[in-house]
Write a structure and sequence with these properties.
single chain; alpha/beta; 10-stranded mixed beta sheet; two-stranded antiparallel sheet
């Protein structure tokens, strides 16, 4: 059995599979390749059978989303290392070898992310992950190479191996034993930020998440749910509150949740002023679900003494008030 399993989650993604599967097949001799299908109704499964008969297909019974979709499928995958790969990613020659070497070199590394560049403009980092993710004290995520909507060109400034806080779900490597110890992603997230939650839980157990520029992939981004979609707004706001409730240290929980709820309210007012009613309603719906699920999420909390989960106090302050747009310019004492 090969050590790595590349597992691509699919839902009605025939066109993406047609475009990107060939690069995965060409450059992944070190891995077994699976497509986990979330009950697609298009021709994607027949396309795989006709064109890539060596790919193993795992059939989920419904569209479970990203979180539960992978949780269901990975019960059937026994390779030592899982690579969760979006269907809109082009991989490159020898992309798996540096990842495998990192895992073999250090048993405390639980999760790894490669350099993620933009498929549409390969000179730039891609929004979802770039050169590795961090969060601030209040749970706002950002990346080396991407802060909010500012995306950097790849000039070699992040050509390194570095410990990060979270890895992008677009191309996410994790040891099977750690994935199963943590019971995988949280099904309640459905999609968006479940990878940050999983990395946080791994961090609380003492495992490292690493980035390496020696492995490079190109990601389309937004291929399954566009940035302007109110459903994406709902999922991002709701899941961020879920994640904080589950993982914050006890002495920070109430204050930071209050701050985030207040910041969400300001964002909602901004949507209202701009006439973006659907996004305003998406935030209201997110808060409704947060309160509905708060007791369940509190029960998911584990003992947590990790006070050093954040890279800086406020990325919002840095970006909007200090006008700091680049990761390399951040003063992490702020």
């Amino acid at each position: 059995m090969k050590k790595i399993a590349v597992v691509i989650l699919n839902w009605n993604g025939e066109k993406l599979l047609e475009k990107f599967l060939s690069s995965v097949i060409l450059h992944s001799d070190e891995a077994s390749i699976y497509v986990a299908d979330n009950a697609s109704t298009d021709n994607s499964i027949q396309f795989i059978k006709d064109n890539y008969p060596t790919i193993s297909i795992i059939h989920n019974e419904a569209n479970y989303g990203f979180a539960k979709g992978y949780n269901q499928a990975l019960q059937l995958v026994e390779e030592e290392i899982y690579c969760l790969l979006n269907s809109d990613v082009e991989v490159t020659e020898n992309w798996l070898i540096p990842i495998q070497h990192l895992f073999e070199k250090d048993n405390t590394i639980g999760i790894i992310q490669p350099k993620i560049l933009d498929f549409k403009d390969k000179t730039k980092f891609e929004y979802a992950g770039a050169a590795g993710g961090f969060i601030d004290k209040y749970g706002f995520p950002f990346c080396r190479g991407r802060i909010f909507d500012t995306i950097e060109a790849d000039l070699g400034q992040y050509d390194d191996e570095k410990e990060i806080f979270w890895a992008s779900g677009a191309c996410f490597f994790i040891r099977k034993e750690i994935y199963r110890t943590l019971n995988g992603f949280d099904d309640d997230f459905f999609a968006h930020q479940e990878e940050i939650d999983l990395c946080w839980r791994a961090f609380n157990l003492g495992f490292k998440t690493k980035y390496t520029s020696n492995s490079v992939v190109y990601h389309v981004g937004g291929a399954t749910l566009q940035e302007g979609n109110p459903k994406k707004t709902f999922l991002n706001f709701r899941n961020s509150l879920f994640m904080l409730t589950k993982n914050l240290p006890e002495n920070k929980l109430i204050a930071i949740l209050f701050y985030r709820l207040s910041m969400d309210g300001i964002a909602g007012i901004q949507f209202l002023v701009k006439g973006q009613w659907k996004h305003f309603l998406a935030i209201l719906k997110a808060h409704f679900y947060f309160y509905k699920m708060i007791n369940k999420n509190l029960r998911k909390r584990k003992p947590n003494n990790s006070q050093d989960y954040y890279y800086l106090k406020s990325i919002v302050f840095c970006y909007f008030l200090k006008n700091t747009k680049l990761f390399t310019k951040i003063n992490n004492s702020l």
